Every structure is written in structure tokens, then in C-alpha cells.
Amino acid sequence: LENYKDIFQLGMFETARDCIKIVEWPELIKIKPKDRIDIFFEYSKLIDSRKVKIIGYGKWKDYKFNEI
Asked: How far apart are the first and last CA of the chain?
């Protein structure tokens, strides 16, 4: 995907809402779904590991992801 037009043409947010959709470059989406989970990966000091930050919005706002 190169831009918002590509995402819009897919109609990925118009289809079933009871499934998981993963978007690698969410900054291309102008209007994000209200109920969503954002996952951020950061490089750590170790070359073979990453830090992960998970944030929920909407119905996922109070879910304790980091306790999993």
C-alpha cells in the first residue's frame, strides 16, 4: 500500500467487524477505527530482540495487554 487511496479501494474497514485486520503502516489511514489495538515495536539494545508496546482504543481501552 502506498497511500490512503489504496487502503480505501480495498474496503477493508467496510467488511465484517468480527475479524482481525493488521495494517503495517497505519499512518496511511486518515480515519482510524474507534475500536482498535495499536502495537509498536522498538529496537532494544540487543540486536535480536525488540520492545513491544500495546495500546487499546475504544472497547479495548482498559484491557491489560502488558499483563499477558
From this structure: 31
